[in-house]
Amino acid sequence: MSQIIIRPIVTEKMTGQGEKEGRYGFMVAKSSNKVQIKTAVEKEYNVTVTGVRTMICRGKDRTRYTKSLILSGRTPSYKKAIVTVKKGEAIDLYTSI
User: Fold this and answer.
1) 6, 9, 76, 83: which sits with the fewest CB atoms below 10 Å from its CB?
2) pLDDT > 70: what percent of the chain?
3) How far apart are CA 22 and CA 1, in angstroms?
4) pLDDT value of position 42
């Protein structure tokens, strides 16, 4: 994978959107912009990208109870990109697993 794309997001919701609407989710570098994401996806998966939407997902608060104390923390935040590909094209995310 490139420095822009960290990993694809493979969930039930994203799989459904990929099959029906041609939208795929990727976890991307926080410093990347839409143009960089578009070129990275086109280069990596050999598809034509028609749209890119980005969002920064905040980390969740986590609390763990141990024998002696309570540990509080937060999961890391990340940037997510929803990429729409040209109609008729698809990305096969399962071949690289």
Assistant:
1) 76
2) 96
3) 21
4) 93
Within 10 A of 91 (CB to CB), how many other CB atoms are there? 20
| Nearest by Cα to 82 from 29, 43, 28 | 28
pLDDT digit string, tens, across residues 56-93: 999 999 999 999 999 999 999 999 999 999 999 988 88
Q: What is the mean pLDDT of residues 50-55?
A: 96
Residue from 85, 77, 75 nearest 37 by CA: 85
Number of domains in the chain: 1
Residue 94, domain member (yes or no): no
d(CA 73, CA 23): 33
**Residues 19, 66: Cα–Cα separation, whole Å:** 43
